[in-house]
Amino acid sequence: MNRNLTVFAVLGLVGGFASAQSSVTLYGVADAAVERVKGATSTVRMASGQQQGSRWGMRGSEDLGGGLKAVFQIEAGLSLNTGALGQGGLGFGRQAYVGLAGGFGAIRAGRQYSPMDDIASVIGTKTCDVLSVVPIIGNGDYNRVNNAINYLSPSVGNTTFQLQYGFGAQRDRSDASPDFGRLVSANVLHASGPLTLGAGFIKVADADGTAAGKQGKDAVLLVGAYDFGSVKLSAYVDQEDKAAEKLKVMGVAAAFKLGETTVSVGAAQARNVNGSAGAMADDARIYTLQASHNLSKRTALYSHLTAVSNEGSAALGFNSPVAGSNSSGIQFGIRHRF
Length: 338
Known about the structure:
mainly beta; 58% strand; 16-stranded antiparallel barrel; Porin
């Protein structure tokens, strides 16, 4: 539960009075874990943000009248174990946008999550999750997009959609790769009672940025989940450009709720991990076992176990994984929201 810091401002104008109501919410997540990861070597270490990314942020709105609101959000990632800023040291690397919202939906401008990342989050985008172990485009280089304009629709029939245009690196047109990072992304999400269905798409004009011309990349992600109450089943499939081939990820998961404890198991197959036409053994299998116990509405203890089985040319996993070798990670942590 977030703790709200609400500010009410009344502006006096000569010859009359006008009032505007504003609200600002300060919030955050503190998350730290001890983990053992095995790849090229085995390492025991402390890590931040393993169930939820550690962060602090502010979001707010101002009532402009007629159902129209101004909205903003700024959010900084943190490495709780060192105190350093996340996302490469950016001041507000997780999100930073301003916009307008009303009955038409919302339009926002700034650094924002991609619509593909929103769909991936239905399945899970933690460090130990399949869609992070496999570097899919919607949860990797383009999970957050700079210089982006987003349109978020209102809910119609329990269905929403989102459309994003990213201006990319905004290079001069005389540059050898002027369209680096320029993209279009969209999603559709239906949530009705126990059923959730989602589809995401992203098209990057130039995902390279060094070679002359355009090295485009496309990706599609489909997810589905059904909550029976005591158990929730989910499935997903991702397909995207990867060198000469198409990377494909297919997985299923089941989450069992036992009072304040949730236990989840999952299995996935990644094909054409390297995308090389000549690589005949670059598939991998990923297995997950996760548990989370709520101590309160804001605080939880958790543990994660992820195991990766690589074929001869695949190198997925943790701690500089080696092609053809297995990799694994196990974590025990605590997460607190404020």
